[in-house]
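Dear support,

I submitted the protein below through the web form. The confirmation email said the job was done, but the results page showed an empty box. After a refresh the structure appeared. I'm attaching both so you can tell me whether what I see now is the final result or a partial one.
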Amino acid sequence: MFNIKLLLLLLAVSWFHHGQAVQETKTEEIPETEPETESEVKISTDSTPTTSVSSKCNIYYRNYQWVLQDCVCRCFQNECLMQIESDQRKKEGRSPFVPVTEELCRSFISRKCSVGFPVVAEFPIPAPCGCNRKPGSIATERFYSLCHLLKFSAENRKPFLTYSYCWPF
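What the results page shows now:
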């Protein structure tokens, strides 16, 4: 019975394009009535941040920091957010982040990601004016695994604030 479930899971995952996420849009303003597209990236946007990040960091301040997290490239929105998460890792007994240049970090992006547990991540969206530090909105996207999230984030220079594991697609 277990092999059948595993086979069905692998079959379902193979229907989706490798490395992409699924798309859904949600805003607090007037909902758009556009027809649903066939895209695989799921995005929901909210104008109020729902992150568990410390209030002393501005999540909309863009000064990208590149680090290695367990030998995998990760991009952070700014040094404050990176430092808070690195300190949390140290408290939990895990290895701290290793700051590197963007070029070096990109050489540590996973080439392929295996099937794993799906995750939902929150991404900061800049204010419509494009002003740095000015509050914007938060977009939520789903990924097939943490590996897919880290790969997407680093390849697209799109740092995420938080992520959590979720029920499969």
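Response: this is the final, complete result; the empty box was a page-load delay. Residues 2-14 form the longest helix (13 residues).
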